[in-house]
């Protein structure tokens, strides 16, 4: 079948790149479609210490670059494209971007997850003007400024630690007393003299005229409202938001089974309710979301796709 890929992978993060490597190495005609930059969440990760075998001080972008080269070395194609629609009802799956229609015998969806927004007034207007979701990208704008980090999971605590290299003071704002992150991480943060905590607290509003100038906090226990204003000399400060992620599954939800939080439901071997469609990485329901579990999913999905194609088309 000409112009039909064996395997089309939607998403070029670690899961998609791993599926691309395994698919191409398994001699499948393989294409990865990525709408933005390859690498997904790890391109905004300053250090990846827990990916087995990664070199000391490996950064997200350097790890991504090696994954891209490795997949390409086996013949995997990578194209830019934002999926607008799809038809998974036939044996040949169809995926359309604004200007190209792709056909494939099997599809791996590895669309990942995006940072959750606080949803408070001012957040959208002040994003990139003091409100950030990426310490790696924006930390150096806050050299010797004050910053707030919102959240109590691993991302918040790890990024707060990273931000202490730049900011003169980092205040972690969390909506309860207990932390979701690894106990060792919070112990480290507690012993860092640059880190302060504001607990049982949520952000009600962020304010500023073109740049972040104040944050309104609400104490969840007492209901007390307080407003923090930028130091007069600084004129601004940072608000880094790490309150979890939202799976990028929305356009597929009517067709592929998802759980209440929107994550794809799949078996351990990444099989979905649609034959020939597999899901890999952070977009699927799973207990641990890490680079290593994403690449593991990608490998499994490509191998399952290869078996599916062999049984269906050969
Ligand atoms: P997470 O574990 O889901 O934590 C999100 C945090 O934000 C929680 O503390 C949550 O509070 C809080 N939160 C959620 N919605 C909120 C809202 N609307 N307003 C205020 N606070 C809100 O997310 P994550 O830290 O991004 O981590 C995601 C996954 O990646 C986790 O599985 C994590 O272990 C993993 N991760 C691992 C590493 C590592 O191993 N090195 C690094 C980063 C991330 P509650 O606790 O009250 O729900």
TrEMBL record:
The lineage of its organism: Bacteria, Bacillati, Bacillota, Clostridia, Peptostreptococcales. Binds 1 FAD per subunit. GO terms for molecular function: thioredoxin-disulfide reductase (NADPH) activity. Keywords: Disulfide bond, FAD, Flavoprotein, NADP, Oxidoreductase, Redox-active center. The keyword Lipoprotein does not apply. Transmembrane segments: none annotated. PANTHER family: THIOREDOXIN REDUCTASE 1-RELATED-RELATED. This is Thioredoxin reductase. Homodimer. It comes from the Bacteria. Belongs to the class-II pyridine nucleotide-disulfide oxidoreductase family. It catalyses: [thioredoxin]-dithiol + NADP(+) = [thioredoxin]-disulfide + NADPH + H(+). Its EC number is 1.8.1.9. One of its GO terms (biological process) is removal of superoxide radicals. Residues 5-298 form the FAD/NAD(P)-binding domain. Its cofactor is FAD. One of its GO terms (cellular component) is cytoplasm. InterPro entries: FAD/NAD-bd_sf, FAD/NAD-binding_dom, Ferredoxin-NADP_redctase_2, Pyr_nucl-diS_OxRdtase_2_AS, Thioredox_Rdtase. PROSITE patterns: PYRIDINE_REDOX_2.
């Amino acid at each position: 079948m000409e112009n039909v890929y064996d395997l089309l992978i939607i998403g070029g993060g670690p899961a998609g790149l791993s599926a691309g490597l395994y698919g191409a190495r398994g001699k499948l005609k393989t294409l990865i479609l990525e709408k933005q930059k390859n690498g997904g969440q790890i391109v905004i990760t300053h250090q990846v210490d827990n990916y087995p075998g990664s070199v000391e001080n490996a950064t997200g972008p350097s790890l991504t670059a090696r994954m891209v080269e490795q997949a390409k070395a086996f013949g995997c194609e990578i194209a830019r494209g934002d999926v607008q629609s799809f038809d998974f009802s036939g044996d040949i799956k169809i995926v359309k971007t604004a200007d190209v229609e792709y056909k494939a015998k099997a599809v791996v969806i590895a669309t990942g997850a995006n940072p959750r927004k606080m949803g408070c007034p001012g957040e959208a207007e002040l994003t990139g003007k003091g409100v950030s979701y990426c310490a790696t990208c924006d930390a150096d704008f806050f050299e010797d400024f004050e910053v707030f980090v919102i959240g109590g999971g691993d991302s918040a605590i790890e990024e707060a630690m990273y931000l202490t290299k730049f900011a003169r003071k980092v205040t972690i704002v969390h909506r309860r007393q207990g932390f979701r992150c690894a106990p060792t991480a919070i112990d480290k943060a507690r012993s860092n003299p640059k880190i302060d905590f504001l607990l049982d607290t949520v952000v009600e509003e962020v304010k500023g005229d073109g740049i972040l100038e104040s944050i309104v906090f609400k104490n969840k226990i007492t209901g007390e409202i307080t407003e923090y204003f930028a130091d007069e000399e600084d004129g601004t400060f940072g608000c880094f938001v790490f309150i979890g992620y939202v799976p990028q599954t929305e356009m597929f939800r009517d067709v592929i089974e998802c759980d209440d939080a929107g994550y794809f439901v799949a078996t351990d071997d990444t099989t979905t309710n649609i034959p020939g469609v597999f899901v890999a990485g952070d977009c699927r329901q799973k207990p641990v979301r890490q680079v290593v579990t994403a690449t593991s999913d990608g490998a499994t999905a490509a191998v399952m796709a290869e078996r599916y194609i062999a049984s269906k088309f050969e």
